[in-house]
């Protein structure tokens, strides 16, 4: 796994929590929203392990919803209070890391 892949894997938890905090959503929709926010090369296959991990940690809750088109049920995700706390921690760490990286890249 390349360094950029490892970095992206580490950022996905926070990015996905951030998206879910904006409102209940499902896996495919998360993939599309990440693409809309210019996340590179995010596949549905990389999203679902993150969602499972976030669910196991209690950061998100799920509910199954019957499809309007007669297809399979869709799993919707919403953020829990514990998830909101974790997202705040992530944002604080990201702000510090981002500031430090920008300083280094600019040669300050």
Automatic annotation (TrEMBL):
Protein name: PadR family transcriptional regulator
InterPro entries linked to this entry: Metal_resp_DNA-bind_regulator, Tscrpt_reg_PadR_N, WH-like_DNA-bd_sf, WH_DNA-bd_sf
Domain Transcription regulator PadR N-terminal: start-end pairs: 16-88
Organism field: Jeotgalicoccus halotolerans
């Amino acid at each position: 796994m390349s360094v950029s892949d490892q970095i992206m894997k580490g950022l996905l938890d926070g990015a996905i929590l951030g998206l879910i905090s904006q409102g209940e959503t499902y896996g495919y929709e998360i993939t599309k929203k990440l693409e809309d926010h210019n996340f590179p090369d995010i596949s549905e296959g990389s999203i679902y392990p993150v969602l499972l991990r976030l669910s196991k940690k209690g950061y998100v809750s799920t509910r199954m919803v019957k499809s309007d088109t007669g297809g399979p049920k869709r799993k919707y995700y919403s953020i829990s209070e514990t998830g909101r706390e974790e997202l705040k921690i992530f944002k604080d760490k990201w702000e510090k890391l981002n500031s430090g990286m920008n300083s280094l890249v600019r040669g300050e």
